Amino acid sequence: MKKSGYYFIKNLISLGLSFYYKSIEVNGLENIPQNKPVVFLSNHQNALLDVLLIATRCSRKPWFLARADVFKIALLRPLFQFLQMLPIYRLRDGKTSLAKNHAIFDKCSDLLNKQEAILIFPEANHNLKRRIRSLSKGFTRILFNVLEQHSKSDIILIPIGQNYQNPTDFGDSAILHFGKAIRVQDFISDNKDQSIQNLKSEVSKGLKQLTTHIENEEDYQVVIEQLDSNEVDYLRPKTINSYLINEKAEINTLPKQKNTLLSKIFRILFYLNNIPFVLIWRVLLKPKVPEAEFMSTFRFGFSMIIYPVFYLLFLLFSGAFIPIKTACLLVIGHAVLNLFLIKNPLQRNE
Fold first, then answer.
1. Each residue of 42-97: pLDDT tens digit?
2. DSSP symbols for 269-294
3. Which of 142, 153, 135, 148 is nearest to 202 (CA)?
4. pLDDT tens digits, one per residue of 119-145
């Protein structure tokens, strides 16, 4: 029952993401082994949507390590547990809380010993900047915790590059690149500190190839403004990274976003088709979003609640005024129209 419930929620969220995003592309699923312990290591830009995209598009059923403070929301705690999310504690959660991580690391070790998969965000926090930040040691502690018990364990690391055109926008596009497998045993030596450094370096290198990476933080703002002003297509990180390291490359050779007059017309139609929901979001909820990185997470959550509730209430209370078949057609028509508008080349910024 629990397994069927998991896949019901997974498919429901997957459907919601299909409405939320104009397009979701996935590459490299063939790199994921099915019968070995796997640790997925992803960059982290878009808060909970990073988790949901991997959960619904991955060929494994991973457990997720998430920042502990989100578990304080009592209403969502059962859902997080149901979706196999585990809390990871940071210094900001209180120095005494760090000791709780020992139990979490032991749990992860037990899972990997059972050939399960785990997802970790090794940058340790989220950030909208298009660059890979320094990786924490957290994932290596889990790896060595397993190896201390089972020295021959064949753990595979899979770096994931998550790329968004405009991560805070509705109607955005996303692409996930699952990188080539990294076999942990190939980086283990008698020197533990060196092994840790080698693993971190290899994972960082993989992530930098799978998503746009602006290396020099001092020049970041200048570079990003240049890329944005030329409307480059951030879903093609390999091409952008090649441009960034080639001093003689011309920026006009980079692939661009598709913005057309038709896009603007579809945008207006979407607003007209959803005026009450847009107003509720903009006036009541959007101002309460705590960080820009959470913008899409809150908007997606709002959409997943408000549309089903609206459609259900419409069907329940329209019977006295509209024949039930007509009401059903109106509900389906509204949903299909929204999907049509979203799947066209829109660049919205609600």
1. 999 998 899 999 999 998 999 998 878 777 777 677 777 777 888 888 777 777 88
2. HHHHHTHHHHHHIIIIIGGG-SSGGG
3. 135
4. 999 998 889 999 999 998 889 999 999
Yes or no: say if 168 and 346 are a contact pair by the CB < 8 Å rule: no
pTM score, whole prediction: 0.91
Alpha-carbon span 314 to 272, nearest angstrom: 18
First-to-last C-alpha distance (Å) of the chain: 39
DSSP string, 2-28: HHHHHHHHHHHHHHHHHHH-SEEEEE-
Residue tagged 């991997």 (tokens)? 54
Q: Which of 333, 329, 43, 323 is nearest to 179 (CA)?
A: 43
pLDDT at 258: 75
State the pLDDT at residue 348: 42
Helix axes 138-149, 101-113, angle to 10 degrees: 60
Identify the band that residue 176 occupies on the pLDDT scale cut at 50, 70 and 90.
very high
Q: How far apart are CA 128 and CA 292, in angstroms?
A: 8
What is the bridge-based pairing of β-strands 173-178 and 156-164?
Answer: antiparallel
Residues 6+ apart with CB under 8 A from 35: 115
Cα angle for residues 143, 147, 149 (degrees, 5° grid): 125
* Residue in the structure block whose two tokens are 């920042």: 67
Inter-residue contact 127 to 133 (CB < 8 Å): yes
Give the position of tokens 């945008």.
267
Angle between helices 324-343 and 295-317 (to 10 degrees): 160
Three-state secondary structure string covering 229-264: HCCECCCCHHHHHHHHHCCCCCHHHCCECCCCHHHH
By three-state DSSP, how is residue 83 classified? coil
Question: Exposed/middle/buried for 107, CB within 10 Å: 0-12, 13-18, 19+?
Answer: middle
* Residue owning tokens 């889990």: 142
CB 45 within 8 A of CB 126: yes
